[in-house]
From TrEMBL:
Protein name, as recorded: Acireductone dioxygenase
A Gene Ontology cellular-component term: nucleus
GO molecular function: acireductone dioxygenase (Ni2+-requiring) activity; acireductone dioxygenase [iron(II)-requiring] activity; iron ion binding; nickel cation binding
Family label: Belongs to the acireductone dioxygenase (ARD) family.
EC number(s) stated in the UniProt entry for this protein: 1.13.11.54, 1.13.11.53
Organism of provenance: Populus euphratica
Lineage: Eukaryota, Viridiplantae, Streptophyta, Embryophyta, Tracheophyta
Membrane-related topology note: Peripheral membrane protein
Catalytic activity: 1,2-dihydroxy-5-(methylsulfanyl)pent-1-en-3-one + O2 = 4-methylsulfanyl-2-oxobutanoate + formate + 2 H(+); 1,2-dihydroxy-5-(methylsulfanyl)pent-1-en-3-one + O2 = 3-(methylsulfanyl)propanoate + CO + formate + 2 H(+)
Record function comment: Catalyzes 2 different reactions between oxygen and the acireductone 1,2-dihydroxy-3-keto-5-methylthiopentene (DHK-MTPene) depending upon the metal bound in the active site. Fe-containing acireductone dioxygenase (Fe-ARD) produces formate and 2-keto-4-methylthiobutyrate (KMTB), the alpha-ketoacid precursor of methionine in the methionine recycle pathway. Ni-containing acireductone dioxygenase (Ni-ARD) produces methylthiopropionate, carbon monoxide and formate, and does not lie on the methionine recycle pathway.
Residues noted as binding Fe(2+) in the record, renumbered to the chain: H90, H92, E96, H135
Compartment(s): Cell membrane; Cytoplasm; Nucleus
């Protein structure tokens, strides 16, 4: 099953763990996510230790560091506070690479018009968010996900909360969003 993504209803004050679909629902294609620099692979999470496709992705993209992370109330100290922090809009100076091995969760990313897109990852989804893209993370109502985190070199996970328009990674991301046909770069609010 392909990854699901949709424009979010931003007016709702509901629980961040709910799908928050617009009415009517507005789904987003993998091609549109790719235009934003968001990449996706569907792999076999039961075989992650011996998966040749995962090995190939890691080699081609230089992901030489890996760790595993369980996110659930039973395994994360100050769970509610951590989830609140993950849900704060931010960027990173490097790609964010996550492979869902069990459970499910949401990554929200901003599109070219600053609209939120909710991406629902489930077991088998490997997702890469480009450096400089505004995003946030939350669990869904299952309250559990096991993720593989991949990094180039030593793990660095520094979040830079919005606004970050002068951050080099954000500037580079905006530059990459300029279309070849004389389009306009992303503008922050």
């Amino acid at each position: 099953m392909a990854i699901e993504a949709w424009f979010m209803d931003e007016t709702s004050g509901e629980d961040q763990r709910l799908p928050r679909h617009c009415n009517p629902k507005e789904f987003v294609s993998l091609d549109y996510l790719a235009e934003l620099g968001v990449l996706h692979w569907r792999l076999n999470p039961a075989n992650y230790e011996n998966d040749e496709e995962l090995k190939k992705i890691r080699e081609e993209r230089g992901y030489n560091y890996m760790d595993l992370l369980d996110i659930c109330p039973e395994k994360v100290a100050d769970f509610k506070e951590k989830l609140k922090n993950f849900y704060t809009e931010h960027i990173h100076a490097d790609e964010e690479i996550r492979y869902c091995l069990e459970g499910s969760a949401y990554f929200d990313v901003r599109d070219k018009d600053d609209r939120w897109i909710r991406i629902w990852i489930k077991a088998g989804d490997l997702i890469i968010l480009p450096a400089g893209i505004y995003h946030r993370f939350t669990l869904d109502t299952g309250d559990y996900v096991k993720l593989m985190r991949l990094f180039v070199g030593e793990p660095v996970w520094t979040a830079y909360n919005r606004p970050q328009e002068d951050h080099p990674a954000r500037k580079e991301y905006i530059k990459s969003m300029v279309t070849e046909k004389g389009g306009v770069a992303l503008e922050a609010y």
